[in-house]
Structures are given as C-alpha cells and as structure tokens.
Design a protein that fits this description.
This protein has 253 residues and is α+β, with helices and mostly antiparallel strands. The chain is built from four helices and 15 strands. A six-stranded antiparallel beta sheet has the order 1-3-5-4-6-2, with helices on one face. Strands 7-13-10-11-9 form a five-stranded antiparallel beta sheet, covered by helices on one side. It has a two-stranded antiparallel ribbon with strand order 8-12. Strand 4 and strand 5 form a beta hairpin. The longest helix has 10 residues.
C-alpha cells in the first residue's frame, strides 16, 4: 500500500521559518484557559531528523497518516502535507520538537503508551463506546478535556472487539501479555498557541550581536539611526545573522 521511507528532501517541502526557542515562546503564547484538547493543528510541524524520523508518500488524507503513526512503534507525532506530485506526504516523528511553520499541512500529537494495560476501577471509568479504530477512541477522550486522561482501545483480537474505554486515571497497570490487542495510552494535546507566534517579523541584522562592534542603531521611529531590520511596533523573532536571542549584556567596543 504505502512504503515507509526516509524523506531526505523534507526540508525543501516544509517552510523554513521555525519558531526558534519554543520553550521561551510558550510562556508568552499560552492561554490561561484551555476550552478543549486539540489533537491536531494546521500550519505547524516539527524539525525532521533523517536518522530517526520517517515519511510515507501517496497518503491521500490526514487520518491515514495519523493511524499509521499509531501503528508505528516509537511514533510520537505525525504531519500530513498536501503534495500535488506525491498526492500526500505523511511524516512520522519519534521525538517531535522545534515547532515550525509549514504550508498545506496539519499535525497531530500521538498519545503516550502505558507500559501494560490500565486495570482501572469503576470510579476511574468515564464511559465505554463502540469505536472502529483507535483514532476514534482518541477523539472521544479528547472531547472530554480535564476529565479523560487515559483510554484503552480494544482491537479486533481482544475480548471486547472495537470498544473504547475512557479513563480518568491509570494508577494500576496489568501485564499486556495477558491482554492481547488492548492499547492503553495517555492522551496528549497541542499547547495553545496564539497567532503572534506565527505572525511576526524578523530581527536578523548582524549589528544586534554582542560582538558586532561600534554602532548607534535604535529601535524607535523617531530615531536618527533606525535599526535596518526594525519596521515599527510588532512581534519579532531574532534570527539569522542576529543570532537566536536579544543580547542580555551591554556590548563593549
């Protein structure tokens, strides 16, 4: 059907603008209240590592991409990108990090497998539903943010074929060898990201570096010597020849 291959030209298909220092931006971009548990997000992906990550070509839709991630051991995130030549490309990430923008794409965070099967009490069980596949089970759990933290999906080879059990906790774990085709995992959600994290201008002039030498630039509209990369009040990202962050010490000449 689809062959799992290394995608050495990943960087040419994705947008080159990354968010840079993700953890520092997260503190600025996180909302105070999360109304839901977003499993997917459009327009973002992660850094692709040719040594650990994989790609699949001719994947017609995002759901098939996400399902492949669930079936692939070690997959912690997936990005599906529309591509006219390859019909659709699915990127599988073992360690998704360094969030960045991409065009015509959508990404999903995979749940974290439990080391065994959740052996939950009646108090831990939220509900049980029919589910044709694990992805449906994940969506059920995500629809109950703050309540559903774990789930167990019973595959066709289990004692309860195609069932989805939503769980509050998973404190007690049973050996999976005695429970064939039961998948217990902890749900993962995308952190809330505000538009400023992607809609920004760049500070990339080398004069911003601590070792740039003498200069008299200023980030002010009424300055006689306005910085060459400053275009007025806005959100900015430090990048390129300017480095990765604003200097925290005074430059000496």
């Amino acid at each position: 059907y689809v062959q799992l291959t290394k995608q050495l030209q990943y960087s040419t298909m994705m947008a080159r603008n990354s968010l840079g220092i993700w953890l520092s931006l997260l503190s600025l971009c996180a909302a105070q209240h999360v109304p839901s548990c977003p499993l997917t997000m459009k327009g973002v992906t992660w850094h692709f590592n040719n040594d650990t990550d994989y790609s699949m070509v001719s994947v017609p839709n995002k759901n098939l991409c996400y399902e492949q991630c669930l079936k692939t051991e070690g997959c912690r995130g997936a990005t599906w990108q529309l591509n006219d030549i390859a019909q659709g490309v699915c990127f599988l990430f073992n360690n998704p990090k360094d969030l960045r923008m991409c065009h015509y794409c959508e990404s999903a965070i995979a749940p974290i497998p439990v080391d065994g099967v959740c052996n939950s009490s009646d108090d831990d069980i939220i509900d049980m539903y029919d589910a044709n596949n694990e992805l449906e089970c994940i969506k059920r759990c995500a629809s109950k943010p703050g309540e559903c933290q774990f789930y167990s999906y019973f595959g066709e080879g289990s004692v309860l074929p195609n069932k989805c059990m939503l769980l509050k906790t998973c404190a007690d774990v049973t050996n999976a060898e005695g429970c064939p085709d039961i998948h217990s995992k902890q749900i993962q959600c995308f952190p809330p990201i505000q538009k400023e994290c992607f809609n920004y201008k760049e500070l990339s002039d080398a004069s911003r570096r601590e070792d740039a030498g003498a200069g008299n630039f200023c980030d002010k509209e009424d300055s006689e010597s306005v910085s060459p990369d400053w275009v007025g009040k806005s959100w900015y990202r430090v990048t390129g020849k300017a480095g990765n962050f604003i200097p925290v010490i005074q430059a000496y000449y």
